[in-house]
Amino acid sequence: MLRIQALTKTYKNGEAALKGVSLGVEAGEIIGLIGPSGAGKSTLIRCVNRLIEPSSGRVQLGEVELTGLSGGALRRERRRIGMIFQEYALIERLTVMENVLAGRLGYTGFWNSWFRRFAAQDVQRAIALLERVGLIDHIDKRADALSGGQRQRVGIARALIQQPELLLVDEPTASLDPKTSRSVMRLLTELCIENRLAAIVNIHDVVLAQAFLPRIVGLNAGIVVYDGPASGLTAEVLTSIYGEEDWTRTAAGEGGSDDGEPLVIARMEAEQ
Ligand SMILES: Nc1ncnc2c1ncn2[C@@H]1O[C@H](COP(=O)(O)OP(=O)(O)OP(=O)(O)O)[C@@H](O)[C@H]1O
After folding, report:
1. pLDDT of the chain along its 272 residues, tens only?
2. What is the ipTM score, two decimals?
3. CA 167 to ligand 1 center in whole angstroms
4. What is the CATH number of the domain that holds 238?
5. Which of 99, 103, 116, 129 suits a disulfide with 157, CB 3.0-4.6 Å?
């Protein structure tokens, strides 16, 4: 579905953020992208839809090589990719419904969007999505009256209304409490499976990533140092991704601490 081959990005100041990243993501597959601050995670997901221009390498979405496109052709192909950001850029004074429909603005044409008129099928789809993400009772609420979790759900609905094939998700839970984070991750993974979407989720919380994302890609200094199942995130692997630390409480399949406190991950799995 998505093929990234030998992708590099060197910023103008000489900073080599990606040093030859290759990665494939299939339809319906959701992967967690982890790594320390500065590893290149944001650069990588932004190179996929070319919000950041890669220095070399290829990005292929289905049959189309995105790295070979420009102008209108690139804009058209970008519609196949939905983006969900940590602080989703909602339009504060617009309602939940209007924010979701804003995801369709690229399609409605200048005059329709100017008068904020939308096709009946877009409105119906927005209603169905808001129902699905649990916000149907908040449809007329202004975005600035929503909680963080509700805002993220609007962001998800807004990305999905364009019916993308690929989702790029940048730190979706960074400002959410643990319970809300889990419900947002659960919703995201369910929606990817239901819609056969491929997704890359840039996520700092390793425990949350392990709990919800079956495949993890670990980046360190612009290089993929791990690509495998969440269950393979041993203390050794975590050290290769993040550096030396006592990983015994975080690593998959490792024992508990000396004081007998159970692993966080074990607790989370038991909850499910
Ligand atoms: N616009 C830029 N110009 C120059 N260097 C940049 C730019 N953006 C990012 N970098 C550098 O590229 C490297 C990768 O940054 P990036 O933001 O992709 O990392 P990250 O893994 O997403 O980090 P974080 O988890 O903190 O968001 C870092 O060394 C960063 O300083």
Report:
1. 899 999 999 999 999 999 999 999 999 899 999 999 999 999 999 999 999 999 999 999 999 999 988 888 888 898 899 998 766 678 888 899 989 988 876 655 555 555 566 778 888 999 999 999 999 999 999 999 998 889 989 999 999 998 999 999 998 888 888 888 998 899 999 999 999 999 999 999 999 999 999 999 999 999 999 999 999 999 889 999 998 777 777 777 654 433 333 334 433 434 43
2. 0.97
3. 20
4. 3.40.50.300
5. 129
User: Coil, helix or strand for 151?
Assistant: helix
Residue 37 CB–ligand 1 contact under 6 Å: yes
Separation between Cα atoms, residue 244 and residue 254, nearest integer Å: 16
Domain of 13 in residue numbering reads as 2-87+165-181+193-246
pTM above 0.95, yes or no: no
Q: Is 45 in the pocket of ligand 1 (CB under 6 A)?
A: no
Report how far ligand 1's centroid is from the alpha carbon of 38 (Å): 5
CA distance linking residue 237 with residue 231, whole number of Å:
11
The CA-atom distances, in angstroms, between 136 and each of 29, 49, 203, 236 are: 27, 30, 28, 45
Confirm whether 57 is domain-assigned. yes
**What's the total number of domains in the chain?**
1
> What's the gap in Å between 152 CA and the centre of ligand 1?
23
Helix spans in 34-162 (H): 41-48, 71-78, 96-102, 105-108, 110-114, 120-132, 148-160
* Helix, strand, coil fractions of the chain, as percent rounded to 5: 40, 20, 35
Distance, CA of 123 to CA of 116 (rounded, Å): 12
Residue 5's DSSP bridge partners are 58
Give CA separation, 154 vs 30, 46, 90, 94, 177, in Å: 20, 21, 8, 12, 17
